[in-house]
Amino acid sequence: MRAAIMGMLGRLRYDHSILFVLAIGIGTLAGYGAIGFRLLINAWGYLAFGASEEQLIAGIIRLPWWHMLLAPVAGGIVVALLLKWFLPDGRPQGVSEVVESVALRDGRMDFRAALANAVSNATALGFGSSVGREGPVVHLAAAIASFFSQRLHLSPAVMRTLVGCGVASGVAASFNAPIAGVIFALEVVVGHYALHAFAPIVVAGVAGTIVSRIHLGNFPAFTVPPLEIASLWEFPAFGLLGILSAVGAILFMQSIFWATDLRRHISSLPDWVFPPVGGACVGIVAIWLPEVIGVGYEGTDSALKGSYGFGLLIALFLGKIALTALCTAARFGTGVFSPALFTGAMLGGAFGVVTASMFPDFTSGPGVYAVVGMGAFASSVLGAPMSTILIVFELTGDYEVTMAVMVAAALSSMITHFAYAPSFFLRQLERRGLNLESGKASHLLKSTGTKAVMRTIFSTVPKSASIFEVRRHLVAQGGGKLMVVDENGALTGIISFADLPEEAFDPDLNHLVRAAEIMRANPAVIYASDTLESGLRMLERTGEHDLPVLSDTSARLVIGILNHEDVLKAYNRALLDSQGKD
After folding, report:
1. Residue 294's closest CA among 90, 114, 52?
2. At 268, phi and psi to the nearest 5?
3. How far apart are CA 8 and CA 388, in angstroms?
4. Rounded to 5°, angle at Cα 438 from 436 and 444
5. Which of 42, 177, 272, 354 has the most beta carbons within 10 angstroms of its beta carbon?
6. Contact partners, residue 429, CB within 8 Å, separation at least 6
7. What are phi and psi of 467, to 5 degrees?
8. Which SS3 state, helix, strand or coil, does residue 284 take?
9. Which residues constitute the signal peptide according to the record (predicted)?
């Protein structure tokens, strides 16, 4: 029976109706995965603080200071044990690992490690870690899709599409925002908007939203009061807020990397020490600024309603950046989506308070600026301006406010992209030696050596070879380049038909003219250790059709020929593959 089902799936692997059925199934399962993740966070939250994720601040402010301090430390100990026992590299995983998996492994992920990662992150969040829940949800949803895709032996293109389906469903279920979930999956994970991927991902996003609304109700992630822009003259202020958001986003991302580098330098301490240290940081901060611990949706809600004053907004802005950096570096959870929304709302709210004090008759309330700051800040951190704009639109339903977010997000994303990095996730991967900014095809050029595509059939002649031997070799190989080597086999020059003088065809000179006299000395070359990117750059700079590939800079032995057409074919194959076209 199983063999019959597998055979049918193999025959219908590219059938769109089957793909839609799989998308609905993956979207439904990923939606339940997101709900299960939230329930696990709440279970740990009740155990640690006697409060759910949605009422964490209200719950912890009633507790004695020692409880607020010790509970996150206990959570850090549990997380340390989970990381040591169940995760291969002892590191929590999130969106960047999903991007890497889709770009380089066709969406293949370790499902057991993903489950352990989800439990670890839910534990950290339940005990107050100042990170986001969306990153782990995205990772879990993608792993669910990958698990079933691998079991059904689906093609790489279909597998990547289904991983995108899982991501769309996970984000949609988390925010009750199906449009934003779909665009996030396409914009950040899949990397293209081709119709064959777009349609199933839409179906999966809707499926995840339906699951979420059935079990959690039709409630948005944030409760946004009615908002109204007081004057169109405010749009320059929204643009300025976009610029400030870019600066804040760069500070936010770099703080995480600074803290991570600091942890790596403390090599004398074992890895299991750091999650409890992160928990201690959470407990200490919670005594004075309880709003910055946990996912932070309560604090974000208050900022959107204009409930905080300028001083508290700035304190929460700086406190959230510091605590998110410390928790992430300590491996006490991962995820930057929620912290970016929180921090952006605080920055926007503070900017709104200042603007309102300067121009009270022409300025909207701080809540409008908090919404705009939230969208602009998150778009820079996530590298997903379209997704964050749509999240804001689905939250507010206000066209004018969404236009303000568009202006701020466009400026913020552009500045961050060119001044720092396209996104936090791509910067994470770049620090691990994976440059995926331009996608899988570009990474292939940067990471593949010339030996992978070079031609190994070529001809060489010694410097002392006669013109007769040179002509014979060129004719035998059908033109191209002939390698001239010295007595040690090192390349000294090249000869092609174009290099031959007219007298080279005079029979009387067959044995009088030597290769050394007519060769092109010191030709452009590429080395075996160089990448295809270097080879392509050299080919284009020199205008050559092919280049000799040498063993190294000292021996200079010819080991192959790098052909321009072969490099472009390899790039084109990777480009088509990344677009889901097998």
Report:
1. 52
2. -75, -20
3. 40
4. 65
5. 177
6. 96, 99, 100, 435, 436
7. -65, -30
8. helix
9. none
